[in-house]
Amino acid sequence: MNKPLKLITRAVFGMFIVLFFSVTMIQFVQADDLRANALNSRALMNSYKVERGAILVDGDPVAFSTPTDDDFQYVRQYANGPMYAPLTGYFSRTQGMTGLEAAMNQDLSGSGNAQFFTRIMNTLNGVEPQGSSIETTIDPAAQEAAYTAMTENGFEGAVVALEPKTGKILALTSTPGFDPNALSSNNDADIITNYRQLNDDPSQPLQNRAIAGDLYPPGSVYKLISAAAAIESGAATPSTEFDNPAQWTLPQSSSVLQNASRSTCGSGDKATLDQALVLSCNIPIAEMTTKMDDNAVPDMAAKFGFGQDLAIPTPVTPSQSPVPESKAQVALASIGQQDVRATPLQIAMVSAGIANGGTVMKPYLVDKVITPDLTVEKEFSPEQFSQPVSEKTADAVASMMEHGVNKPEGLAQNAAIDGVRVAGKTGTAENGTDADGNDLPFTLWFTGFAPVEDPEVAVAVVIADGGGANFGNEGGSFELPTAVGKRVMEAVLSE
After folding, report:
1. Superfamily of domain 219-493
2. pLDDT digits over 210-253, tens only?
3. Which of 47, 132, 185, 220 is catalytic?
4. pLDDT tens digits for 127-177?
5. Is 220 a catalytic residue?
6. Helix 327-334 and helix 283-290: axis angle, to 10°?
7. Phi, psi dihedrals of residue 58, rounded to the nearest 5°
8. Rounded to the nearest 5°, which phi and psi values hold at 412?
9. Domain coordinates of the chain in residue numbers?
């Protein structure tokens, strides 16, 4: 009997050890993560009994809690909801949390470790619990300019503006959008109805096109990365000349590549790299990159952030720049086609890195966390993300981008601002054909920065479907997104 008893005793003892370990992990190690989980309905219900901290833009609340007479005590409200939805997200009783509401939930709800002693003191003193507020990096003038420019024209797409020297996100817009107030009431039936309508909407208003969702082919704005890779490796300089045919057969293929103009890149027998960027020509860029290592451009893209995990603190979907499997794919990928896909945030990071002398700063959306007694609890500082190119290479690419704006033939000339040196690059990405063989509407891009000598803002704009139905799904890449980008840069520079 002793042997069976010993086995049972050891088994019970082992089970107690496992139980003790599990309880310890849940109560102490994983407690914060479990509380922050958007699917934790108990934490969400309890949080409605706390005055949740505000989300601030330049000191003004764009998300805040208001007392109610119902059992939930508070309701979450949003000022200029659709304009700021891409950064605030929503805080919903039945649908959970998104955006900064989710990423900064512990601070906003007052449940984080940093507020542990504050919670104890408030309990002892009979003070009602209250969450901390977060101050964002958003520039309200830039955000309004971006949102207005996109919505007044009915554009589907996104705008991101960064401060090149710090990585601060000055504007983050995604259209068409939604009003978070529709998902934040204390009426479950209304929330569910509204969410279903938004979720079933073909225009996908809940999708944050600036940092996630269905990524876009970057088209010719990706040529900035191809040019940077060539110059940094010594394969080319802005004055390097390439053959200048109107058509070019892709290597190891019968497919023919053309420039967007369906003609040569300028009038000469040769075209320089500078000329190719100014006129956004495909053939010289493709010629150049097919003579380089197949990994050269994807490796440079990775240094700028493609394929890298990033949170701002909201999670960002990584952009894609896979290694091509043939020289024909190298050529197509070098002009932002093939399997290359990008978020507007990623393209803004490319421009910001070029503007900042080759150093890409990590983008961030939260400037500081402020306690209910107005003490700064946390402050976020600029952090270097990467240095993909040297200052010399960055200056060379920046100069070509400036030529795209200040030369009469430059496709980015509509980005010109009186009295300001502006650098810019346009892009038009093809989206294939429909079932009948007709070309699908293009994806239009603009990216740039200003002033060139002392950059204050870098911007990326994407407009899906060639400008949308309001424009007959037509519009040159040098027109629609460039006008939006110019308005955002002007808004920042005018302050």
Report:
1. DD-peptidase/beta-lactamase superfamily (3.40.710.10)
2. 999 889 999 999 999 999 999 999 999 999 999 999 999 999 88
3. 220
4. 567 899 999 999 999 999 999 999 998 999 999 999 999 999 999 999 999
5. yes
6. 130
7. 55, 40
8. -100, 15
9. 219-493
